[in-house]
């Protein structure tokens, strides 16, 4: 059984309608909700602001907890 290569391949090739006219059902309309556009824009703006002002970043004064955990785990696993 042949596999259709195009979504409209079930329409016979010798159709009575001309190729230039399309019914409204063949048109695809994509509508996005407002947050689908706003959310990536806000995230991009926040990341851009973080990149633009690196002078306000401060180094941590104490060892991070994750570093201490990894260090203790390696100490326990080492012979």
Written description of the protein model:
- The chain has 79 residues and is mainly α.
- Helices cover 41% and strands 0% of the residues.
- It has helices spanning 34-52, 65-77.
- The radius of gyration is 30 Å and the shape is elongated.
Q: Can you tell me the overall shape? A: elongated
Structural class: mainly alpha
Percent range for helical residues?
40-55%
Q: Which series of helices and strands comes N to C?
A: HH
Please mark out the parts with pLDDT under 50 across 5 or more consecutive residues, or reply none. none
Kindly provide the radius of gyration, computed on alpha-carbon positions and rounded to a whole number of angstroms: 30 Å
Mean pLDDT: 76
For the biggest sheet, the summary is:
none
- Measured distance between first and last alpha carbons: 64 Å
Count the E strands: 0
Q: Roughly what fraction of the amino acids lie in strands?
A: under 5%
Tally of individual helices: 2
